[in-house]
Amino acid sequence: MDASTVAKQDRRVEFEEDEPEPGVGFCGGILIFFSVILIICSFPISIFMCIKIVAEYERAVIFRLGRIVSGRPKGPGLFFIIPCVDTMRKVDLRTIMFDIRPQEILTRDSVTVTVDAVVYYRIFSPIMSVKNVADVDSSTRFLAQTTLRNVLGTKNLSDILSEREAVSQAMLAQLDEATDPWGVKVERVEVKDVRLPTQMQRAMAAEAEANREANAKVIAAEGEKKASRSLKEASDIMAESPAALQLRYLQTLNTISAEKNSTVIFPLPMEIMSFFVDNKKTKM
Asked: Which of 95, 168, 186, 214 is least enclosed by beta carbons within 10 angstroms?
């Protein structure tokens, strides 16, 4: 395990470790004292201002005179605060999803594409998300847009179209590293759609059609080659056996007569024709 991984884990468990509550000073003590007196005097009405409830998926970060109380978030369940002295910030720990609106990106091979994506993240440290960044949701959204442009700007068009998983993993790694100090864990990044210019779509379609036609011609040529080789082998076999050639001749006549109702005139047998041809050569 490298040093960066250890540092991440240390930061992610930071909110789970108790820290001593910092002193509020003399003036702070006076304000807290008068606030408690006010609560007692206005009881039971003040009890509704002191009791707070957070859900199971929420945590509350309590600030007392500008300082985080006890270094740990409150919740889930019921807890008390001191009005006029404590302020509360609720943080949702559930996984949040947002869309990265379509971004026009110039790829490495100088092609302009429009790409959109979806990001899933959650807050693992409520204190870090409140203390280290003003608006964790907006910051994560804008950082995701910038990361998408930076990652795809170093890729060729073919890589973007064929290696979406690798692009998503590269974005995930960069986003997770950048948002770790904010108490945010990026869980998943998915590239949704890659839209090409119309001219580029036509050019790619023409290229694909040309490749298909070329492959079809190659396959047809291979078929003709195999057929001619088979015909040559068949002709050699028939040349060695006159009886086989005669049977093939009769089979062809049978096929012709079966296709259409027509009269077929059988020529002289081939043996007779060969006899006359041999006699003619002898006389000459």
From this structure: 214
